[in-house]
Design brief:
By secondary structure, the chain is mostly helical. Helices cover 79% and strands 0% of the residues. The model has no long low-confidence stretch (mean pLDDT 86).
Length: 263
């Protein structure tokens, strides 16, 4: 268990570091990023998360289930739907505000606009942390370099797309009037949930190993909810955009290559 926790902490620590590096761009750019760059960033993040959900989570979930004599589709579909329900519940309960949105979502709140912006990105990062954590937990169960390589590929892909995510939260906070250091701090801290939920995922998976296929699919469903509900619509920002579409394809191809080459 200790080794699993260390691996998960290292993997999600990397993804958190990439969020922090992205947030640091606020010290170099005083103005908000252009609409096209924002579309490309959001599309890229969506593409990575779709590919990670399929190759890094759903495929291993079905393989694990079939190896234990369970129909592969059962935990894959069931866990996927539970993950969607989990994110829908968080979306409904937790007040948050998306960049360029007219009004906040979730329960009514008197929280400041900047706090609501940070919470919106934090919601994205919860399923990413779970995905990396469950992936390393699965690798520890199987052992061997190949098993860990797949988890590393997943952490790498999510870490890469976290870089533009860090910028996408810190720069709008700067535009809201916060000083650069505070925008950087909030942008960075929006990713702290990834190590937290990554380690929690390992601890949960270690105590209920037979449910691993369900847990992997749960993480996939949570990530796909974020993609379909928020990232892809925001990548087009109310109108059709080739930039956003190409960003999705680029992220998808990159994550696919990482998974095949490393895993």
């Amino acid at each position: 268990m200790g080794q699993q926790v260390v691996w998960s902490a290292a993997g999600t620590g990397f993804t958190f570091l990439m969020t922090t590096l992205g947030a640091a761009l606020v010290f170099f750019f005083k103005k908000a990023i252009s609409v096209n760059v924002q579309r490309a960033f959001l599309g890229f993040a969506a593409g990575v998360m779709v590919a990670a959900s399929v190759w890094g989570l759903l495929t291993p979930a079905m393989e694990e289930a079939e190896a234990s004599g369970t129909p592969g589709w059962l935990p894959a579909a069931g866990g996927f739907l539970l993950g969607i329900a989990f994110l829908m519940a968080l979306d409904y309960v937790l007040p948050h505000l998306h960049v360029d949105a007219a009004a906040p979502e979730g329960q009514p709140s008197s929280w400041r606009r900047t706090t609501l912006l940070v919470l919106a990105v934090t919601l994205h990062n919860i399923p990413e942390g779970m995905a990396v954590g469950f992936s390393f937990a699965l690798a520890a169960q199987h052992g061997g370099e190949e098993a860990y390589a797949g988890a590393v590929a997943l952490a790498l892909g999510i870490g890469i797309q976290n870089f533009p995510e860090g910028a996408a939260i810190a720069l709008p906070l700067r535009r809201e009037g916060l000083p650069a250091w505070k925008s950087f701090l909030y942008g960075s801290l929006s990713g702290i949930v990834e190590p937290i939920f990554g380690v929690l995922a390992v601890l949960v998976a270690g105590s209920i190993q037979p449910l691993m296929p369900w847990l992997l699919a749960f993480a996939a469903g949570s990530m796909m909810y974020v993609v379909v509900e928020e990232l892809i619509p925001e990548a087009h920002l109310g109108e059709h955009s080739h930039i956003g579409t190409l960003g999705v394809m680029a992220g998808f191809v990159l994550m696919m290559v990482l998974d095949v080459a490393l895993g």
